[in-house]
Structures are given as C-alpha cells and as structure tokens.
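fyi for ur records
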Amino acid sequence: MSVRAKKKLGQHFLVDENILGVIGRLAELAAADIVLEIGPGLGILTAYLADRVAHVYAVELDPSLSPKLTERLAGRPNVTLRFGDAVKVDLAEAAPGATKLVANLPYNVATPLVAESLDRLPGIGHWTVMVQREVADRFFAAPSTKAYGAVSVLVQLVAERTGFHPVSPAVFRPRPSVDSALVAFRRTSLPPDFRRIKRVVEGSFAHRRKRLANSLELAGVAQRGPAEEAIAAIGRASNVRAEELAPQEFLALAEALK
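which gave:
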C-alpha cells in the first residue's frame, strides 16, 4: 500500500535501511534499553529498534499510517504504538521507564521536543535524533556564533555530545530540500529548578538583538533594574547580549535573578 507524505505535518519518511546501522551505533543500543521513538512514520526504524531492545514506545501523529505500521510491526509484541501529538502528549506517561530517545524527529517540532525532553523525561539518559542539519548544529553551538541560542544553552547544561553524522536527503521520501544530521548526546546532569532556568534562558534569547537586560524585561522575566543588577553580579557589562554568555553563566544569572 502506497503512503503519501503530508507536507503540512512535515513528514519525510525514512526509507533507506542502510542508515539504520549508523543510528544503532550512535544510540549505543543494548538489550535492556527501553526506547521512546517520536514519529515512527513507516516503521522502518521502529522495527529495527524492536529487534534489538527490550521495548519501544512509538508516538505517531498521523493515524492514517496505522495500517502500514501495524503490518510492518506484526510479530513484535515489544512495541507499543500510540497515536497523538507528541508536543501535547504526556511522554513520561506514554513511555514509562524509557531510557533512550531515538527518532527521526518531525522537522517542524524537533527543537521544542528536544528542549522539553531534557527535564520532562528525566529517565532519558541518551538521545539519538535525526534533525535538520542547522538544528543539529544549534544543539552544541559555541557562544557568540550565529547558531548559538536558547536550545544550545539548555542542551549543553544537561548533556554532552557523543556522536554526529551528516545524512543525505536521499534516505528520505520525499526528499527534503535541506540536509539532515544525526546527533547523539548523553545526559550528564539536570540542574535543580530547571523549569525556572529554562524560562530565564528563553527570555534572554527572546529578543537576541537587544541587550540582555532589555530582552529579559520584554520577555516578562525580570524588570530592567533587577536584571541589570543580576548581570553585574555575574561579572558582565550592562550592554552584554545573551549570545555572549556561556551555558554555565546562565545558571549564575538565574540564581542572581532569584
């Protein structure tokens, strides 16, 4: 049965099985792993994972893929398939005990899904995600670079990169107009009060062309005076911009803003 990808859902189905070995290597798959997969699509990666790990929880937005997924995953009782919007679903409830996130993430929601998973899924210790190349570059971008932003800070506060692999558009149907990449990272920590830190980080970059104090004020995180005092307390000049701060400096900033 032919399945047509839906452009409005950002669907690009993984069809080249040669990339599966690369995903498996970067994900450091083990027999005891419990894997969360978001956006299984046609189930090629799902089946590969199910044959190698204890359980796969797959969350798919498009219910029209049900017949194809059911057919491909037949005989694999260690797969739990759920239909719903991964941005809105309680993923901790949908994938109890998940230890790894392995997915060809839908392009239009990749960044928020990764950012939310950092603390909403504290049991996840390792991520291997296929995303647009520019998104992959953002995760571990350095301060004062164009790619550096809120998601860079949040990911780097929680994890370290363990692998990176460029991916050709040819592995997808339909072929995307942009390059992709696999990026793998391992959890190193979860700072306490991460929700508040996340709000400070996102507010800092909400108006990245403005001074940090102005951005924090415009984002409703802090008034200008307290923001300037907090910036001075971490040893930065009043005209500093968010992109100049290293990830660890945002921890100090969040603390100073208390």
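The chain has a mean pLDDT of 94. thats all i got for now
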